[in-house]
Amino acid sequence: MLKAQLKHLAKRALGKPSVPPPVKGVADASWYDAAYTAIESYQEEYFKSHYYSLWCVITDRVRRNRLKRVVDIGCGPGQLAQCLFAMGDIDSYVGLDFSAKAIESRRSSSRADNTSSATRPRRRSNVTHLTTS
């Protein structure tokens, strides 16, 4: 825990975006909301993400197995969904996440994708905010 706190403080001192580490190592929805808001890489296109190579592997496996429907638990701002729709051949996608900020980010980009891609067949994309009791 101390190491995570020191890393956070070092990033802040260097002017880099950072979110304080979760309390007792447990991240709740508000922690993820702060992370998705503060860290710019979550707002980037999927192909600019440091997860891009992993998403290419996942997309390849989805294509290879001819899967048409995907459920993504912990979808964040939906960068994997963007990769799947761009490079895969899926018909529907459901993303679930605790962060309302991440879900709103995905819904906004999904609306923009659907309005700018009138020549492509319409694909179903649904993202849902999970609440905790």
Summarize the structure.
With 133 residues, this protein is α/β, with parallel strands linked by helices. Helices cover 46% and strands 13% of the residues.
Structure description:
- The protein has 133 residues and is an alpha/beta fold.
- The protein folds into two domains: 2-42, no CATH class; 45-129, Rossmann fold (3-Layer(aba) Sandwich).
- The protein has helices spanning 2-13, 29-38, 52-64, 79-87, 100-116, and strands at 69-73, 92-97, 124-129.
- A three-stranded parallel sheet has the order 1-2-3, covered by helices on one side.
- Strand 1 (69-73), helix 4 and strand 2 form a beta-alpha-beta unit.
- 23% of the residues are buried.
- The model is unreliable at 114-122 (pLDDT under 50).
Give the topology.
Elements: H1 2-13, H2 29-38, H3 52-64, E1 69-73, H4 79-87, E2 92-97, H5 100-116, E3 124-129
Parallel strand pairs: 1-2, 2-3
Helix pairs in contact: 3-4
Give the class-level CATH name of the largest domain. Alpha Beta
Helix content, binned percent:
40-55%
* Spatial extent as radius of gyration: 16 Å
Question: What is the CA–CA distance across the termini?
Answer: 26 Å
CATH superfamily of the largest domain: Vaccinia Virus protein VP39
CATH architecture of the largest domain: 3-Layer(aba) Sandwich
- Helix-and-strand structural type: alpha/beta
Strand order of the largest sheet: 1-2-3
Order of helices and strands: HHHEHEHE
Number of helices: 5
CATH topology of the largest domain: the name is: Rossmann fold
